[in-house]
């Protein structure tokens, strides 16, 4: 329990510094700033992996109930982190569409994402604990989770880029039952007084849509990480560090999402891989005994997607010149 308290205190400190100190005023996040913060969050995630190694190697805080070595624990942590970070790329595409649909000004986007992260931390914890309890009680749930991932991969292949009507989403419908929404307000507040009545702003509607979207994406990502490990601390910590870096990653990638058109195919492959790993977990014991193999497969898929995108971009540039 002690290590959980320390971890939550650490995350609270990071978030307090983020919004209360470094992003106290609403401003447009530049490419340079987003790159710096992306590097900061990735560095923190990697450093925490070292802490995971020592905790499990020396069996501290009573976390190592499976008797895992430090090397095995850090490999699973890094694999989970990279898996969750890669799956969040598809989330970035949708968030960009949501901001565009609701016409959220760039200086207010960080505020929406910050509070979206707060909600995501809570919902991810609940879903991880429920998922772990479900797997421990029902072994067949591994087949269900694996099927969900394969279905998600197939759905991702079929998805087109048509813009949805986010005003019809569940979050907006629930909000409109509590507060009327004034779509003309663009002042950075979530609630506002209009003629003595409290109304919701497009910023609050956007926050709820982002939150519900993250829950839907968690239906994919949470089962995916259970294919790596069933250790709740490794699952949660790798998940949270991936989420914490999502804001900076969004501002870094949002302006060049079209440059990585083959990333989606890499994500489809990753989902297929982890889905098959869960369904055939009794047969694929090699992957369970050698956790580094999953890390290599996932990294190879992502790097291949990036390289394929870069090659395609260069060909298009040459053709446009010719």
UniProtKB/TrEMBL annotation:
Cellular component annotations (GO), alphabetically ordered: membrane
Keywords for the protein's UniProt record, in alphabetical order: Membrane, Transmembrane, Transmembrane helix
Membrane topology reported for the UniProt record: Multi-pass membrane protein
Pfam families in the record: TerC (PF03741)
Transmembrane portions of the chain: 6-23, 35-56, 86-102, 114-134, 232-250, 262-280, 292-311
InterPro entries xref list: Integral_membrane_TerC (IPR005496), Integral_membrane_TerC_rswitch (IPR022369)
Subcellular location: Membrane
Protein family membership: Belongs to the TerC family.
PANTHER family recorded: MEMBRANE BOUND PREDICTED REDOX MODULATOR (PTHR30238), THYLAKOID MEMBRANE PROTEIN TERC, CHLOROPLASTIC (PTHR30238:SF0)
Protein name: TerC family protein
Biological source species: Taishania pollutisoli
